[in-house]
Design a protein that fits this description.
The structure holds two protein chains of two kinds.
Chain A lengths: L1 H24 L7 H8 L5 H35 L12 H14 L5 H26 L7 H24 L3 H12 L7 H20 L1 H7 L3 H6 L4 H23 L5 H11 L5 H25 L8 H20 L1
Helix pairs in contact in A: 1-3, 1-13, 2-3, 3-8, 3-11, 3-12, 3-13, 4-5, 4-6, 4-7, 4-11, 5-6, 5-11, 8-11, 8-13, 12-13, 12-14, 13-14
Chain B lengths: L1 E8 L9 E8 L4 E5 L6 H8 L5 E8 L1 E2 L5 H7 E4 L11 H6 L3 H4 L7 H13 L15 H14 L4 E5 L7 H16 L3 E5 L3 H7 L2 E6 L2 E6 L1 H4 L2 H8 L3 E5 L6 E5 L7
Parallel strand pairs in B: 3-8, 3-9, 6-7, 7-8
Antiparallel strand pairs in B: 1-2, 1-4, 4-5, 9-10, 11-12
Classes of the chains: A mainly alpha, B alpha/beta.
Amino acid sequence: MRRFRSWYWLALGSALLVTAVIAVANGAVAVSIDAVFDALLGRGDPTAIAIVRDLRLPRVALGALVGAGLGASGAALQGALRNPLAEPYLLGVSGGAAVGAVIAFAVGATSDAVITLAGFAGGIAAVFVALGVARVGARTARADVRTLLIAGVIVGAFANAAIMVALANSSPNNIRGALWWMMGSAADATWQRVGWLAVSILFAGGALVYWAREIDVLSLGEDTAASLGVDVERAGRRAFLIAALLAAATVAAAGLIGFVGLVVPHIARAMGLRAHRPLIIASALTAATLVVAADLAARTVAAPTELPLGAITALLGVPFFLIQLRRVA
Amino acid sequence: MIAFKDLVVSYPGVAHNAVDGVSFVAERGRLTALAGPNGSGKSSIVRALLRRADILRGVATLGRDVGTLSYAELARGIAVVPQREEPAFPVQVREYVALGRYPHLGLWRSPSRDDEAAVAEALAQAGVVDLSDRNTDALSGGEWQRVRIARALAQKAPAIVLDEPTTFLDVAHEMAIFELLFSLARSGLAVLLVSHQLNLVARFADTIVVLDHGRIAISGGPNDVMRADRLESIYEWPVVISRDPAIGAPALVPLRRPLHH
């Protein structure tokens, strides 16, 4: 088991690196692998340097970070909520973030930072509304996991309705911007955006890894977790909040990228991982690789037209999930 | 030792108290059974012990008032096998039982030799060593219950509480679980067993506490508790008491026709 693990981590890490290098080298203008490394070191053709350093690298980094955030968030949520169908967007985060961004578009905001921030704020607001709804919905003062899940779905549905109302009253231009954002894209990657997503993922992802063993216990069910010394309500709420924070940060940075947070933890489990500490890390690495690959496909498959990244990940995710279902059945 | 003194538990929005002034002790080395009709307050007592229900009055103690213990201290003092449990994702039996060490390990400490020994001993005590490499979703009902007991034993707490551990089990598996619990009690644990199976309880328990509407209706040894007149009024059903042919323990036989109507 142990020997298997070490080469396994190496494989996951190398897969991400190799995919990233390929993604940096390919695109509208192909750059040879040698030229990529030269450009990284600041040598050779200035155009290649500009393409690699200012366009491709931030985009690949953003894709990897978004994937990592969604993978870690999904793995933690599925365990804490004890639900294999739980995913980062299920809890109203995506809907809330979309409402925030769409409102920003609707009032005519064009600044990248404002829209990003509005998306993030919307996502976090939705999570707190869901937590509040769950607390009111629960008969006792304690919000149990199922109520939380239902509350998230309800908040998400409400957010979708709000988006439609906002879009119905928007100019075509704003609708296009909002739609593109809702389909998910790493095209607008800037180093600034990469920077702050990296910080969010480092903190929130680190927190999930820190509390991972508590999630192991939570996944046994509330009664058992309580008997093992876990403050079930607090631990559940904590995992939920941190995972939601991660998801909101990714949505703010690159819009909605579906299926990654749902499918990747199942892939990691299929590799034999069970304990949540390695599971969260492996899910992050795997999802990062997948999103970088999907983004490469998004910008090369139908070039010069760029496909929405969220659509690609969903197209790849569905067959993956069906195979998984067949395996279980 | 687990002790309850004048315990009152209530749930918000419910008119009557779920537990209404219950006092009894479950001593080390003894098997104490908690019986009574559905809704008589058995599970609420277990919840109160784990600080999962609001204690309105009285105390549940584990050496100290449970309200003064941290959750981890509580879990080191008492292990619980709840009524229902299904891991969200199947885990290997050995890893599952090892989660019983969580109250000792916390978030970061890696398992020491002592922790590994505790897990190995728990697997052996519950008789599930052979299942160690299996996944929890590949176990039969009886195997799963034993594995859950092993997880609780890995906690190495001086007291263990089991809530209906033999529901859905056939006769042989049910008997095997009761024999296991009996030997655990004799090995020095305080065993508190919540069970509907009065007849089995009467053959294994040292003390039986029968609850009715949140209060203790009868308590004592099997011969004190297994009395037709009292049990008839508690369960509101006609019964007779016969004897187990092997050890002469009292056995309850519910009759066909209801008393009222």
